[in-house]
Amino acid sequence: MRTIVITGTPGTGKTLVSRKLASRLKFHYIDVNKFIDKKKLSEGFDKKRKSRIIDVNKLGHALIKEIRAVEKQNRREKGIIIDSHLSHYLPGHHVDLCIVMKCDIKELSKRLKKKKFHRKKIEENLQAEIFDICHEEAKQLHQKILVIDTTKGFNIKDLAKKLGD
Predict the structure, then answer these.
(1) Does a structural domain hold residue 8?
(2) For residue 55, is it within any domain?
(3) Nearest to 67 by CA among 51, 80, 56, 86
(4) Of 54, 90, 108, 142, which is least surrounded by CB within 10 A?
(5) 4 or 71: whose pLDDT is higher?
(6) Above 90 in pLDDT, residue 74?
(7) CATH code at 42?
(8) Which range marks the domain in which residue 70 is found?
(9) pLDDT tens-digit profile of 3-51?
(10) CA 58, CA 61: separation in Å to the nearest integer?
């Protein structure tokens, strides 16, 4: 069973791509935000940054257990897609492919404003995109990486073909 993580700055299209790809490839889909709630992995709320505090090591251990549980269930799915800007923190030996979603800064700003992100959160996420944080961290963790630019959309059929659909 293959495990694909889809990461990137918020607003780059992770969830849309993850859901469509999971459906097309017949993979099990894990929304890490819902997973964090279900497993009670949040360690509080950062009022200044207006976001939950997550210990990525604890999250990683919980996701590895979930991957193993899904594999043992002998499902019809051919693999697992994990959707989160934190998913690239999983150790490389548990991940077959890390897809890093990217987007032009002007377009990303529009998307985040449309999602009604707070001004400081928009600035923080734009800086993360400018400095290519998710991609750089995934490289440091020795992930096998595929970069997708969603500025002008994407073709799910082409992506699925790249992945062996």
Answers:
(1) yes
(2) yes
(3) 80
(4) 142
(5) 4
(6) no
(7) 3.40.50.300
(8) 2-152
(9) 999 999 999 999 999 999 999 999 999 999 999 999 999 999 988 888 8
(10) 5
Q: How far apart are CA 55 and CA 37, in angstroms?
A: 13
So what's the pLDDT on residue 119?
A: 92
For the chain, give the percent of residues with pLDDT over 90.
Answer: 85
Given a contact cutoff of 8 angstroms between Cβ atoms, the answer to whether 44 and 93 are in contact is no
Alpha-carbon dihedral of residues 38, 40, 45, 49, nearest 10 degrees?
Answer: -50
Contact 79/3 with Cβ under 8 angstroms? yes
pLDDT per position as a tens digit, 89-106: 998 899 999 999 999 999
**Domain assignment of residue 165, yes or no:** no
Give the gyration radius of the chain's Cα atoms. 15
- What residue type is assigned to position 15 of the chain? T
147 vs 97: CA distance, rounded Å: 11
Instruction: Tell me the C-alpha distance between 52 and 68, whole Å.
Output: 26
Residue with tokens 């979930």: 66
Confirm whether 97 is domain-assigned.
Answer: yes
